[in-house]
Amino acid sequence: MLTALHALVYSDDPAATRRFFSEVLRRPFVSEGERGDPSDWLIFRTGPSELGVHPTQEGEWSAPRHHSLSLICDDLDATMAELAARGAGFTGVPRELGFGRGVLLQVPGADDLLLYQPAHATAHDLPAGHGAHEPTEATGTHRGTRMPVTEPEWEQHYAPEAIWSGNPNGALVAEVTDLGPGRVVDVGCGEGADAVWLAGRGWRVTAFDVADAALERGRAAAEAAGVAVDWVRAGLLSSELEAGSFDLVTACYPALQRTPERLAEQALLALAAPGGRVLMLAHADVDRATALEHGFDPDDYLDPDDLVAAASDGWTIERHERRPRSIEGGAGAGHHTDIVLVLRRTGADS
Ligand SMILES: C[S@@+](CC[C@H](N)C(=O)[O-])C[C@H]1O[C@@H](n2cnc3c(N)ncnc32)[C@H](O)[C@@H]1O
To answer: CA-CA distances (angstroms) from residue 300 to 14, 130, 172, 258, 303?
Structure first.
């Protein structure tokens, strides 16, 4: 598991540079030596961090391949005044930089650091994750990244390490516990905790997702639990699963794209057998403005109301309610309320 970013400053006068970080920037530190003063190898706490990737070549722009450090502040003028009062010097005056307003902060013994007040979206203040659950709780972010959209993005999102807790979703457990087992399909199953739980309760489970890396973790979990699950790499619209063949269709925080033709809604409903149910879980009260700042527009994604609208004929709403949820740690911990929807295919066409 990755734990932190470790940055290095190469200095002609390390003691002066360390003194600057300690006394002017007032960074707490640990010492790799006995003395614990700037003549020792000190390691400074940097506080929250974020990382961008810029091209070495783009149009007229070019830069050598390198890494670069900047400091971010909330108010450039106030921060400059505060640092100047502790002896900091600056090269030049503050400038508009396109991505924010900044100035070069002089670092004794080393190169200047850019100090800036960003005008861009920031990642350092994202919650630990922003998906359905938590990182190595088995999500959102998520890895505090933009919400993945395409299949390769989901694949990449899952690749480095487990995202979710490995525990089944609480609302799914509550809704399904009293149902007799049958055939179930888990749409957008992620790392398979729900699928494994369902299989353990005697359900014949098909679980599909667009990300192989997630399915691999599901396979391993199923093996460890000694249960059988049919894992399928597929997208909802491209899956070749037989329509009308599942007693239960589950879609937990499924991140399915809305389309004008309502394709995702129709595909989900089509999977249910006559008399079968569709269970959808979604996060309630997602703040659109905050989500947009993090590159994710909730309006692009299917929500339970879309499914209700698409299920007007031949369907009964068994449950459509808000329910508190409690998840400790990980990416989903920021979400405190679920929307729980259970539809049952009861109409004449069933
Ligand atoms: C927020 S995660 C939820 C995962 C899982 N249901 C859970 O509750 O932990 C959304 C999942 O949907 C998958 N996904 C996104 N688009 C999909 C699509 N069109 N068809 C199937 N799965 C999709 C993603 O790969 C991701 O695993």
So the answer is: 51, 16, 24, 6, 9
